[in-house]
Structures are given as C-alpha cells and as structure tokens.
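Exercise: predict the fold of this chain.
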Amino acid sequence: MGTDIAAIFAAHRWSVHVVEPAENRWTAARRRISRSLAQIGSRGRPGEVALHATLAEVPWRGVGIVIECAPEKLALKQRLFAELERLAPVRAPLASNSSSFPISAIARGLKTRSRMLGLHFFMPAHLVPAVEVVRGRATDSAVAARCAALMQRLGKVPVNVKKDLPGFLANRLQHALMREALAMVERGLATPKDVDNAVRYGFGLRYLGAGPVMQRDLSGLDVHCAAAATMYPNLASNTRPGRTLRRLVARGKLGMKTGEGFYKWTPQSAKKTLARYERALLDALALLKRHKGG
C-alpha cells in the first residue's frame, strides 16, 4: 500500500519520502513504484522518490502531508504518531491508512489531534479511485476538507466519513455483504464461485453505473421497500465471523498467500488471476473516466 500511495503522489510530481526500515526490501519497493507509475500512465517526469531507513532521516522541513501505512497494530501506530507529531511541521496533516482502527484511538494522547485523520486507500491504491477521508472526534473539519481537496487534485475520489466508526464506510458495506455471502454458502444455498459470479456478473457490474443508493431510485423505492420487508427478517445477523471463515483461519488456510482458502491456488493460477484482476481494474478505471459524474 505504501509504495502504491507513493506512486500516486510521484505521478503528480510530488517529491516523496518513503520510510522502510528493512533495507533489503528497498529494491522491491522501487520496482513496485515504477510498475505502479507505468500503470497509472503519469504524464511528464514523475517526482523523485527517496527511501529512508528511519523517520529521523526524512527532511521534515519541506513535508506537506504524512500518510502512515504501518501494519495493523494499534500500539505500533500510536507510537508512530507520537513521533510524527514531534517531527512533522505543525501545519502538515497526519493521516493513517488504517482500515479498521478508529482514528480517535490512534490519535489518543496526541497534543495536535486536530490535524490527525484517516486517509484510507483501497488495494491496489494506485488503481482504485476512492479514498475515505475519515474524521476522528478531534479532527479539524478544515484539515479534512484540505485533504479531500488534495485527493481530488491527485485524481482520486474522496469519500467523506464524518463519524469515526470501526470499518469507516466502505469496509462496513463490504463486511455486511460478506456476512450474507458466507451465510448462504454455509446454508448450502450456493458455492463460493456462484456467489462470486452473482456479484461480478450481476449487481456488481451495475455499481459501475450507479451506487446502491442511486440504484434504489432507479428501480423504485416502493419496489425496494416491499422486497426489504420480505428479506430483512431472513438475512444473516451473526455478531461474530462465520463458522466456515473461522475454521479456515484456524487451519491456516488463509487464501492465495498460503495456497488455499475458499479456493485452491498454485503459483501459476495465482499469477494468472492477479494479472486478470489488474487488467479488469484498469479497464473499469478507463470506463469510469469516460462516464464521470453522478
């Protein structure tokens, strides 16, 4: 995520400083940034990207914004932001790319909590346009507005999230869908592949043209209300991850990275699927650019 976010800024001629303590990963990081820049199709010469082993090496005087992409460990993020608050220029927003922790929890104890917010990108960050701009309880609305405007200048689509709830906005929607998807698989209603096909080739395709709320206006709120009255009582309402998901995780079947999850993966099938996935995203991105608005 960090390298792809770096590519977004570099593509718009920003000078970027990436902090990666493991210097043996620098070659791979530079390779990833170059690849992402090529996929974005940046115009002109991109901005320079420098890698540093420590925060102390960054030339902080010229830094305009900080985006943290550390592992999802709350204590680690809190320590990082305590140091960032001390190092970064006072007007520089301090943003976290966390996908789950409340921004207010990460900012706890900071003296300048007003400039702390979430900028949550979606993988792969350089291809998916949306970025959630998440306000914590103490976030200055003017800082959030500045960051949203910056994301727009970088060619992204800012999604303003005004309340600091776990999962923010998009992940809450995704988890609601996934809860129902896994419940249907566990009930024997469909296979994982059938669920995926229903989304990819069914209603998911329509979401490129209109989001779920606008879709209801297009189809008629009376139709939706009647269908909801029938279905809502029968939808999954479990308050913990589904049984199948928990069993797979307990057995170490974590998906593509371990060779098996809901699907079985070989190095060849993983490479082929990831290539198809990125091609589909690039095609979808081109389509969205042709049909802006709404």
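Check your answer against the key: The longest strand covers residues 116-121.
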